[in-house]
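Illustration 12: Tautomerase.
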Amino acid sequence: MPIVHIELIEGRSQAQLKDLVKDVTDAVSKNTGAPAEHIHVILSEMQKNRYSVGGVLKSDEEAK
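Figure caption equivalent — predicted structure in token form:
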């Protein structure tokens, strides 16, 4: 049973997230031979004020 964890910053639409988990499931199934119904995908969305790159919060980047 493959388990895939994906961490991303909030802000994607429900349609984008559905497409993402479908594409990831298809890729894992293709490359491991695991049936899609046994593949688990966990999405963890972070608030922009809880993630930084280079010491700058993503929420602060938008304020510029």
